[in-house]
Specification:
single chain, 2 domains, alpha/beta, 261 residues, four-stranded parallel sheet, Rossmann fold, 40% helix
Amino acid sequence: MRLLIVNPNTSIALTERLREAAAGVAAATTELVAVTAPRGFPYIATRAEATLAGSIVLEMLATHAAGADAVVIAAFGDPGLAAARELLAVPVVGMAEAAMLTACMLGRRFAIVTFAEALLPWFQDCVEQNGLAGRCAGFCADPEGFARIDTVQEEKERRLAMLARQAVRERGADVVIFAGAPLAGLAERVKDEVPVPVLDGITAAVLQAQALATIRPRKPLAGGYRRPQAKPALGLGSALAALFGDPPAGTANPTAGLPAG
């Protein structure tokens, strides 16, 4: 199985952290391919940044998705997830959706703990868009700043573990999700310090993606995720244009074999 991990952030160090966390749960037969956004932001924190990142995700998929059995979008708010599911024939999993749905199988209500308050409006939108507001016990974020995005989990490990315990004690959370790609791997390190299950978005997403790839679901011919009808496009690169329709003569089509829908 070949699993493509798309980091919509521009931090290469963050991509490596995500890959290491994914390798900790991936099957021995799963090949992990992790790629980093070529432009954008070192980490995504706002709705505006997430909207731009969604477009960049599609560009990355146009370049790298050929041959993948499943794709993970490795940013907690899942930028570009719905669009990628429309266009690709293989399963596409977002870290936020995977973590929240996994949490719902472990308890009645989950809390989301993250490293910066700036992330909360975007994460709140994500919970609501997934129809899980009624299962969410609330959000906890550290109001203090941080030195570097690639070391933020080490800087804030003790504080984030404390916020997780607080979410259990004060909000009645049955499960805690550590939200944000920079926190990949934190759940495993602090799981014995929190009295309920703790989840990591990348590990949940990798395990869900492997399961879906094993099922080998067909590309929908109807419904909300059928492939959109091709139309002329102006100013797109050849790979991205091919993702939306037939490629120019002589070029590879990363969506070859997709039903037109």
